[in-house]
Amino acid sequence: METTSADLIKEYALYLKLECGHSSNSIDAYIRDVEKLVGFLEAEGLSLYHIDRTVLHQFMAALSDIGIHPRSQARILSGIKSFYRYLATEGKIENDPTELMESPKIGFRLPETLTLEEIDALLSAIDLSKPEGQRNKAMLETLYSCGLRVSELIAVKFSDLFFDEGFIRVTGKGDKQRLVPISPKAIREIELYFYDRKNRAAKKGFEDMLFLSKRGTSLSRIMVFHIIKKLAEEAGIKKNISPHTFRHSFASHLLEGGANLRAIQAMLGHEKITTTEIYTHVNNHHLREEILTHHPWYNRPKTSRLESEREG
Questions:
Q1: Residue 222 in 3-state DSSP?
Q2: Annotated catalytic residue: which of 149, 253, 262, 294?
Q3: Is residue 298 among the annotated active site residues?
Q4: Of 156, 158, 208, whose CA–CA distance to 177 is shortest?
Q5: Separation between Cα atoms, residue 77 and residue 60, nearest integer Å
Q6: Cα torsion through 61, 64, 69, 72, rounded to 10
Q7: Distance (Å, rounded) from C-alpha 168 to C-alpha 181?
Q8: What is the dihedral of CA 242, 244, 247, 249, to 10 degrees?
Q9: What separation in angstroms does the CA of 271 have from each of 33, 225, 283, 295?
């Protein structure tokens, strides 16, 4: 009978501690890399024992697909290679599937990733006394909390909001629709924005649009870009960021927090989820749990600076 993945990982952790002499932090990093692969394999109905380079290439492609930087991909692959070398040395597998795997090339740059502190600083730089203040805060919370593309953000309608169920409907590339879990925090900021939105006249054809410009029409992608750039300057953030930085940060933070890779892909729009599934498909509730459980934005102490400001 084959040892379970959980038992293999425990044995590997003991090996790293006793035979390799690694620190607790290093061991945790190695284990997280293996657990990322385990989550991917479980979603595919596979085990750690029965994979080949094709499956590993699919795993690496999935990391790239959600925007994980090649340098981080290389580190994850290194951890997985170490694990499979251990399995081969201990005679638990006959062939090491990672033996001929090459690390991703890191000669190009993907968008920067923001830390939670930097996101805090950006949101704190918003002047809520201005007419567009609460709109901007609701937009950025939604952008980061849901991992949206900027084109998806500016297209959100009132009819796309399913707050009682905890989802919003998003229209992505190719007009494909998906349901994305939305956090209570993002819901609250949007609801605070409702008052401003209801008092803003919408031009004909834009009555259902959630985020409106001063002219009563949809915001443009360039406008959102400029809003973020200005806030970054005011917050003293030197990174070259854009709306996509929030989407990349969303994926990176969830993956670092232990969320399932396939769930992250679904939330980013790589699987079609029909409108009616909001009431019938259990996987939607699983996706919501993935965010609330693994997203660091919702797992910090309640006395964070932003919460204190809101409560004050």
A1: helix
A2: 149
A3: no
A4: 156
A5: 8
A6: -40
A7: 7
A8: -50
A9: 24, 27, 12, 20
pLDDT in tens, 259-269: 777 777 777 77
User: What confidence tens digit (pLDDT) does each residue in 31-44 have?
Assistant: 998 998 988 888 77
Tokens 């670092």 — which residue? 256
Catalytic residue of the set 247, 253, 288, 294: 247
| Cα 240 from Cα 24, distance rounded (Å) | 34
The set of residues, in sequence order, having a beta carbon less than 8 Å from that of 113 and lying 6+ positions away, is: 69, 245, 248, 249, 252
Q: Which domains does the chain have, with CATH numbers?
A: 5-89 (1.10.150.130), 116-311 (1.10.443.10)
Q: Which of 51-55, 85-89, 229-233 has the lowest mean pLDDT?
A: 51-55
* Spatial contact of 171 and 161, defined as CB atoms under 8 Å apart: no
For this structure, is 248 an active site residue? no
